[in-house]
TrEMBL record:
Keywords noted in UniProt: Acyltransferase, Transferase
Matching Pfam families: Acetyltransf_3 (PF13302)
GO MF terms held by the record: N-acetyltransferase activity
N-acetyltransferase domain segment(s): 33-106
Name under which the protein is recorded: N-acetyltransferase domain-containing protein
Statement: the UniProt record of this protein carries the keyword Acyltransferase: yes
Organism per entry: Sphaeroforma arctica JP610
Keyword Electron transport on entry: no
Family: Belongs to the acetyltransferase family. GNAT subfamily.
Length: 157
């Protein structure tokens, strides 16, 4: 299973590295710098070509620092620009309010709740005019600059 991720045409994975761990370790020590991943799975959602998004920050000390947000934004921009995808789906456990808030802040909206599976389905349609351009593009601005802007925008809501 682990070796098949690079062979699956319906899955795209970005590995999230800790810049600090990578910069402080040997240049070849990518494995110890890994803190998580973000994935999209190509799916058919309500007869529409879509991508299901998943993110995981496995290292507890890396959580809450914006790595997941930045990785999701990069993945959405890549999927939009390079794959032509405009419809994204995420399924989140009902108890995972942190992830639900994260995706809501990225303009995902609740589509449904499954009590049987104890999960909420949230969606984002980038083909609508309500999606800001900054979610469909990615520049080389620093993580701190982007997080500061997102935090300010969230505080003004």
């Amino acid at each position: 299973m682990q070796a098949s991720w690079h062979q699956d045409a319906d899955k795209l994975t970005f590995i999230i590295l800790s810049e600090k761990a990578y910069a402080n370790g040997p240049a070849s020590d990518v494995v110890s710098s890994m803190i998580g991943d973000v994935n999209v799975f190509l799916i058919n959602h309500n007869d529409q070509k879509a991508a299901e998004v998943e993110v995981m920050i496995a290292e507890p000390e890396a959580r809450g620092k914006g790595y997941g947000r930045e990785a999701i934004r990069m993945m959405l921009a890549y999927a939009y620009r390079e794959l032509g995808l405009t419809y994204f789906v995420v399924k989140i456990g009902l108890a995972n309010t942190t992830s639900a808030r994260l995706f809501k802040s990225l303009l995902f909206v609740q589509e449904s709740v499954s009590e049987a599976f104890q999960e909420v389905t949230m969606v984002m349609d980038m083909s609508t005019s309500t999606v800001p351009r900054n979610l469909t593009t990615y520049s080389q601005r620093s993580l701190k600059e982007r997080l500061a802007k997102d935090t300010l925008a969230a505080e003004n809501e």
